[in-house]
Amino acid sequence: MTDATLPAGEAAPLVARDVRLALGDLPVLDGIDLEVGRGEVVALVGPSGCGKSTLLELVCGLLAADSGTLRTRPAALMPQRDLLLPWLDARDNVALPLRIAGTGRREARARAGELLDRVELGGFARSRPDQLSGGMRQRVAFLRALATERELLCLDEPFGALDAITREELRAWLSGLLDARPRSVLLVTHDVEEAVLLGDRVVVLSPRPARVTDVIDVAAPRGARDTGGTPVPRDPTDPALVAARRAVRDALHAAIAADRGRAA
């Protein structure tokens, strides 16, 4: 296994080649090939339990692969549960990675406050997690990941625990935030709609042990703005998105059918 931090001149913040991993006797990843380009959002979809979250943990250095090549810039992980520290207010939760990195308390709080202001949460800077709605908590958790200033963000079903309306609002919010502050993103989601609304490419994984069975390019551009300069999320009725949704669903069904055929 070759595992290294990419040099500053490397174009792709994440490059994985033939990455394999087993947890004990259980094969989880079976020769993963994957790239995330600079400023690109790549969505990972696949059947439940196929190894999507495990792959994120590997990219973030929480696990080591058994074989293959993995080269990545330092990455920040946002898990499905927000994991905010209940004894800290929103500002100090956002500031936490800055404090861990050695930034002084005053500067860390100032930078965290600026981030909260940008997403209209400045009025809740002194609120603790139990005083925030689920959507607010997820915004704070995302800002905490963003505060690390790491180019690669790994998001593990960040909206999966939210109701449908809040999830839709946060998709639009995240899309606008990434347009304003571009980062490379590896997004795990079980929601095909979410994958094509946020992703530049959608990578389809097989049932465990995970293999890449298809890669669908999402032709609809990101970064559109209205006449006032405000970022506008993608339109779900855009023919390019409709076609991408169909292609992803077809690829998922094909991957599951192929796996059942092998098992039989």
TrEMBL record:
A GO term for molecular function: ATP binding
InterPro entries: AAA+_ATPase (IPR003593), ABC_transporter-like_ATP-bd (IPR003439), ABC_transporter-like_CS (IPR017871), ABC_transporter_ATP-bind (IPR050166), P-loop_NTPase (IPR027417)
Keywords attached to this entry: ATP-binding, Nucleotide-binding, Transport
Thylakoid listed as a keyword: no
Keyword Amino-acid biosynthesis: no
Pfam name, any one: ABC_tran
UniProt organism field: freshwater metagenome
Protein name as catalogued: Unannotated protein
UniProt xrefs under PROSITE patterns: ABC_TRANSPORTER_1, ABC_TRANSPORTER_2
Domain ABC transporter: 14-232
